Amino acid sequence: MNVIKALFTLLLTLALPLAAACGGESSAVVSPAAPTAIPTATPNLDATVQAAVAAALPTPTLIPTPDIDATIDAGIAATVAAIFTPTPTATATPTPAPKVKPTPAPAATPTPTPQPAAAPRPTPPPIPTKSPVALLSEMVKQARPAVVRIESSLGIGTGVIFDTQGLTGYVITNYHVVEGEAEVNVTVNDTATYRGAILGIDSVRDLAVVKICCGSFHALPFGDASRLQPGDQAIAMGYALGLSGEATITRGIVSAIRYDSRHQRDVIQTDAAINPGNSGGPMLSPSGEILGINTFRREATSDGRPVDGMGFAVSGTTVQECIPELKAGRPAPAPTPTRRPQPTPVFGGGSASFGPISGELRHEPSDGFIKTEYADVSLSDFIVSATFVNPYSAASNEWDYGFAIRDGGSGSSARLIKVIVTSRGRWEVAWRQGRSSEVQTITEGTLKALNTGAGGRNTLWLSAVGERGLLFVNGEFISMLDLSAVTGSGDVAAITGVFIGNEVAGEVTRFEDFRGSRLVKEYGPASGLLEYEAGLISEHDSRVWTRDLVMEAEFINPADGDWDYGFIIRSPEFNRLEVIGVTDERRWFHKTRDVGDGEYTEVSGGYIPASNFRSRNHLLLLVLKDSGFFFVNGELISRLDLSHNLDYGGVSAVGGFFNGHTGEPEFENFNVWTP
């Protein structure tokens, strides 16, 4: 194109003078004289065209003829060099493992409140070609690369890879396996060891996520733990006792599905062996899906009797709810003070809670029976309440109503306790044993405020723990009760017509909002010494995490030095707590502190009567929602305002709360119950 353009330009240049020379005649014009012009030579057209073409074309570059033999020789040399020089492959550098010590089993927790059974799931079709043993061994082979060994300064535990992203793997384990660590050693498939970074922790639910890099990791999927039922198979994998070699396998069944209100989690109970070192490992289905994270086992009852086959795993339903926060590295959300709603009880099924129930107790004075409305439960320690409506005025006829508790057995083994109020403005605790119809009064007293008119309403509230009870009427504390006559489990009922003559034919005693809940003994009995440490509160931690509770302990006054002792409750984190106790000056105190506050704030306090202060003092604390009741040696000292702190938190027995109090109190029978 450039050549043609050059030729065109040249021709146009030459054509213009020729066109001017060949033009027509012009008029004569007189002009000044000019010098004689030199004749112009005729242009050489061929030479001009050739020169233009040469200028327009690019100058060619000379390419030497290649040396074919030299090229072939160079290619052969490069190939040979590549064969004998391997390409380096990136591998994980093993990190020296710390000295191994067995992982301590976490403190066993009492059996949590059970949840209703999940809907039945369809039975998978049988696989006729292989035996169950062969299927299990194949599942284990497939799952093993995802089950990892975790080593920290605390010892050895287990984890399982649940997700991978490129060369990064994410491991779920227990918080107590990595507690206090920023990094841990993670051995994958019993070969390569990686340095794992702790991403997120949840100390309440005992979960943590660890990130490892860089390798080709295998992850296991989660199964649908919500569809588990008692009797389903459960397989546990983990590095039990920190033994060298591969993760060990134990197999059992799902014993129960429960809700652990103390730790805000669903748990799976199994008889598969779970030992120290198994913590953080997976509970697997026969198909190799993660059903839960093995967490703890129970070795003994609260009174020291040994038990077998009581292992627990955090259910996969709870684990999957927590993983997004843990994986993102954000702090775990604080436990909500709102409890999971209780299911409507199926009466006759021995539920741990019941109500609310409303109904009528119809008077039939001629039949000689006490009228009852049973809750169909079996409870020993519990809270029960109801509002009763007077059938008529106390001026027209007497009446009584209240509760029958721990009602169990039949024939000679029958026994129960009755707690009632009467139209005479009195309260009474009585019991009956065996076939005898005789009811023996244990204790009684006078009520200061009782509505006795027709249609009057009175709310009764009763707490029972072991041999003690607490009775409230219309929100006012009445008395600590002696319930030692019957301490076993039994039914609870709303009753009327306990005394002969306290019924009128055709009348009814109505009751409303009759409800109750089991109190679970979470800790105790424990004893010990609260040793003095300068600048620190001496604390015996129960490891109980709750908002509402009943707790007690008997403290022995130190012989030397100033002293104090009591309880810490609702302590979700360091320097956020409530402390209630007494001092050697017969003072009682309730102080609170929030995170960031430099000082403790006194909520309430006062003096204890000298007649009620001894060398050994029994302290009891009842806490429900925004209120507490503090007792010393069976006497109510004060009703506490807890509306400023509705958190779930830790519970402890403490001493040396005040600076300079160097006395070291002893404590006995430290017990904690929770709803």
Short description:
With 675 residues, the chain is mostly beta strands.
How would you sum up this structure, described in words?
The chain is built from six helices and 37 strands. The protein has a six-stranded antiparallel beta barrel with strand order 8-9-10-13-12-11. Mean pLDDT is 79; it is low at 10-42, 56-66, 75-130 and 331-351. The longest helix is centred in the N-terminal third of the chain and has 20 residues, at 2-21. Helix 1 (2-21) packs antiparallel against helix 2. With 675 residues, the chain is mainly beta.
Shape label:
globular
Termini, distance in Å? Answer: 96 Å
Q: Taking all residues together, what is the mean pLDDT?
A: 79
Structural class: mainly beta
The strand order across the widest sheet is 8-9-10-13-12-11
How many individual β-strands? 37
Radius of gyration: 44 Å
Low-confidence stretches: 10-42, 56-66, 75-130, 331-351
Helicity, in percent?
A: 10-25%
Major beta-sheet overview: 6 strands, antiparallel, barrel
List the helices and strands and how they pair.
Elements lengths: L1 H20 L23 H12 L11 H17 L28 E2 L17 H12 L3 E6 L2 E11 L2 E6 L1 H4 L4 E6 L3 E11 L4 E7 L19 E6 L9 E13 L4 E6 L11 E3 L5 E8 L13 E5 H13 L24 E10 L8 E4 L7 E8 L10 E9 L6 E8 L3 E8 L6 E7 L10 E9 L2 E6 L2 E7 L8 E6 L11 E11 L1 E10 L8 E9 L2 E8 L7 E10 L2 E8 L3 E7 L7 E7 L8 E9 L2 E6 L2 E7 L7 E7 L10 E9 L1
Antiparallel strand pairs: 1-9, 2-3, 2-5, 3-4, 4-7, 5-6, 6-7, 8-9, 8-11, 9-10, 10-13, 11-12, 12-13, 14-25, 15-24, 16-21, 16-25, 17-18, 17-24, 18-19, 19-20, 21-22, 22-23, 26-37, 27-36, 28-33, 28-37, 29-30, 29-36, 30-31, 31-32, 33-34, 34-35
